[in-house]
Amino acid sequence: MTRTQPAEHRLDANGIGLTYFEWGEPGGRTVLLIHATGFHARCWDQVVASLGDGYHVYAVDMRGHGRSDRTPPYVWHSFAADVSALVEHLGLRDAIGVGHSMGGHCLVQVAATHPDAFERLVLIDPVIFDPDAYASDRYRGFEDAADHPVSKRRNDWRDWREMYDRFQDRGTFALWDRKVLEDYCRYGVLPKEDGRFELACPPLVESSIYLGNTGTNVYEEIAEVRIPVLVLRARVRDPEERQIMDFSKSPTWPELAGQFEQGEDVYLPGLTHFIPMQEPAMVAAFIRGERPDQS
Fold first, then answer.
1. ω into residue 26 within 30 of 0, thus cis?
2. Given phi > 0 = left and psi -120 to 50 = alpha, else beta, which region is 176?
3. Which architecture, in CATH terms, is 7-135+216-287?
């Protein structure tokens, strides 16, 4: 890309302020990137850098995340309405839509209601369960957001470097591309009045999103999506597994791609749910329409 740092923009929509970022210039192939729960738009920086020239890219901070307003409700239908407002504001047509996890789930909703906005979708381990799961409470797990383990995340940091040092050798973070982890930390905190920093997506907001959206069924919307859809999936999770926060495995129904009129499944068993964080260059290749070597 010709611009190493994105331009930052603000959009007032649905009663909140949304921040979004732009790389490249009009005239290139348009790409819209939507991040996962608990993340932010700048987690896509290394994917964007790997795309090469000729792309005009937008990435949005969803409500409650990054530099966007922390305004409830934190439900995926509201997130999809926000993205719809952005799509309309930008006048997107025949774009490539890319969504990771919650972002993929929301992208399906938007594509169903804006059939001309996208020419194809790349859904990166979207949190879409098998249809039977939505008839039960299999994935709920907690009664209150304050009881969810994510709500207990550390939320006070000296600076982003302290966050990076703490995470770089922990759990699935240790598997991430180092530049992506740096972007996650650098742009994932905001200054507090005492000069220290807090998470841009507060832990209680993140846990509220997990708790309030496990029952959001989008199979009616899937039936309305007529364009090509590529589903990238990480290693399979046991469907009866209760550890819903095990991000080393995929929450996506293995048969999901077959529910789309033009769906294609790509199974990546060597990767965790954090596919864009581990392999940003591979994700960029899929966005370009290539089929990179996955061995």
1. no
2. beta
3. 3-Layer(aba) Sandwich (3.40)
Q: Which of 272, 262, 288 is nearest to 36 (CA)?
A: 272
30-75, pLDDT tens digit by residue?
999 999 999 999 999 999 999 999 999 999 999 999 999 999 999 8
The candidate with the shortest Cα–Cα distance to 108, out of 283, 278, 261, 210, is 261
Question: Per residue in 155-167, is it b (16+ CB within 10 Å) or e — as a string?
Answer: eebeebebbbeeb
| CB-neighbour burial class of residue 186 (10 A; exposed 0-12, middle 13-18, buried 19+) | middle
CA dihedral 194, 195, 201, 206 (to 10 degrees): -50
Query: What secondary structure letter does DSSP report for 237?
Result: P
On whether the pTM is more than 0.85, the answer is yes
Show the CA angle centred on residue 254, arms to residues 259 and 135, nearest 5°: 70
